[in-house]
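Example 9 (inverse folding). The structure is encoded as follows.
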């Protein structure tokens, strides 16, 4: 090989060592774990042909902004909530007011640090690889380091020259964050008043942190072998914070089975199925019916979870109770016109009632019926002692004329992302139902209410079935000395009958 050819080969080798070493250096040291307000984040810089910035919020998805061109991409991922920092902020109103500045300052400092660290890691990686390949040929080693330094500086120069603060006008959403535009508002208004938008982001950080915080303060209850404890939830609507609330209540109240009255998703898409994975880690059976925001794709994904019991016209035993339920016949996100007739909610209720009577005749009576839309409860009346439903995002209980208790649940997911759009946040609601294990009859329930995203409150209200819905006096019996409350014949919100923090039950509720 000629002298010129050898020099060319050596030059190519040095460039390759510089590039590969820079890449390996970035993999090893191009990251930074840093607090941003009460959030713990991981920032990384990685080589890419697209450039830009990515904000990842597991399990919601990612938000991409084409902030710059060049070979480097900045990625920020939320990894956890710093509970101590969150409590410090909540305890000091002045700190809450200054959270926007704190978040902005933390983020700027973290970006500067990860950029510097990544540059040093890239050059260091090239030098180290050069030492391994070229041994003691220091000129070649330094040349490889120079190549990586040149790439770092050139890429940084391109990023700085092409930086576009107006890129926020055209964000790209992946995964569940496809619903984010309705949450963050119009992009033009964000650009026009960025300080207000920054404050809203800080408020969102505070709200989510507070929700995590209040769940850890719920009182613990001792298990009672004579009682079956059922956690009743509904309308989670893709709110990932709901899983932490459900897990906290399940552990602290020693729940035997969870019942979900549907609308666990928002659009019933395949992308939303990843949101369901935490169910498998809850450790108890999870009984579920399809809501009008859940598709058959969602139902199939739920059925694939190892601890999920999907009810769609049949009964099943879980936690010692027999449940009967059916999915909602409507699928709201589906705008396609179909000639195929869809059953009404009333027809689904009538079908469940018929199945309930058949099971009772066979000696296997239904203990709890589950339907998403509580409008079907009137058709089920008399065929099951209790009907659980959701859909309306409000909590109500009523005794129906045929003797069936009808329970509507509020939104356990605080109405999902839509709940963040309101001036007054939607409360997070769920209930713990206590059944006698021998008779399988509902004895009492606790209504749990978290004060919505942004309100630090956790309220638990104990209600006794016999006091809320006393049995009618037999005909001809003497009048009671104290008037009993009237029995409602239509859904009404029942008032609390005890203090917000009931005592821990030692026996059957």
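The amino acid assigned to each position is listed next.
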């Amino acid at each position: 090989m000629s002298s010129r050819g050898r020099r060319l080969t050596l030059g190519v080798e040095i460039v390759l060592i510089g590039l590969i070493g820079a890449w390996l250096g970035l993999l090893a040291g191009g990251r930074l774990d840093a607090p941003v307000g009460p959030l713990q984040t991981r920032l990384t810089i990685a080589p890419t042909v697209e450039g830009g910035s990515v904000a990842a919020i597991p399990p919601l998805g990612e938000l991409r902004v084409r902030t710059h061109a060049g070979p480097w991409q900045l990625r920020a991922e939320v990894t956890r909530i710093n509970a101590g920092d969150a409590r410090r902020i909540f305890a000091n109103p002045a700190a809450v007011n200054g959270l926007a500045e704190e978040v902005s300052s933390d983020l700027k400092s973290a970006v500067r640090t990860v950029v510097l660290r990544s540059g040093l890691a890239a050059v260091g990686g090239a030098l180290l690889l050069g030492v391994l390949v070229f041994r003691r040929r220091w000129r070649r080693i330094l040349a490889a380091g120079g190549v990586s330094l040149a790439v770092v500086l050139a890429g940084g120069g391109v990023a700085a020259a092409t930086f576009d603060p107006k890129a926020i006008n055209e964000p790209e959403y992946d995964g569940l964050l496809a619903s984010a535009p309705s949450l963050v508002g119009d992009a033009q208004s964000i650009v026009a008043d960025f300080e207000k938008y920054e404050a809203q982001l800080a408020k969102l950080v505070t709200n989510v942190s507070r929700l995590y915080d209040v769940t850890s303060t719920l009182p613990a209850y001792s298990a009672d072998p004579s009682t079956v404890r059922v956690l009743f939830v509904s309308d989670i609507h893709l709110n990932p914070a709901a899983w932490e609330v459900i897990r906290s209540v399940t552990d602290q109240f020693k729940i035997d089975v969870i019942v979900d009255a549907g609308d666990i998703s928002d659009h019933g898409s395949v992308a939303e199925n990843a949101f369901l994975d935490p169910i498998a880690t809850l450790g108890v059976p999870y009984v579920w019916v399809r809501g009008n925001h859940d598709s058959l794709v969602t139902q199939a994904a739920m059925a694939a979870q190892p601890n999920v019991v999907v009810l769609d016209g049949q009964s099943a035993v879980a936690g010692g109770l027999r449940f009967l339920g059916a999915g909602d016949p409507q699928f709201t996100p589906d705008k396609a016109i179909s000639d195929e007739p869809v059953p009404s909610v009333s027809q689904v209720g009538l079908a469940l009632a018929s199945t309930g009577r058949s099971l009772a005749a066979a000696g296997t009576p239904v203990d709890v019926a589950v339907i998403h839309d509580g409008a079907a409860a009137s058709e089920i009346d008399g065929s099951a002692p209790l009907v659980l439903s959701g859909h309306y995002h409000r909590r109500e209980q009523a005794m129906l004329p045929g003797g069936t208790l009808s329970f509507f649940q509020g939104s356990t997911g605080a109405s999902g992302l839509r709940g963040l759009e309101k001036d007054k946040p939607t409360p997070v609601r769920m209930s713990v139902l206590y059944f006698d294990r021998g008779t399988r009859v509902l004895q009492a329930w606790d209504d749990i209410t978290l004060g919505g995203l942004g309100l630090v409150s956790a309220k638990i209200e104990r209600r006794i079935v016999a006091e809320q819905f006393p049995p009618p006096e037999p005909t001809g019996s003497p009048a009671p000395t104290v008037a009993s409350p009237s029995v409602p014949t239509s859904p009404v919100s029942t008032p609390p009958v005890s203090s917000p923090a009931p005592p821990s039950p030692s026996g059957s509720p």
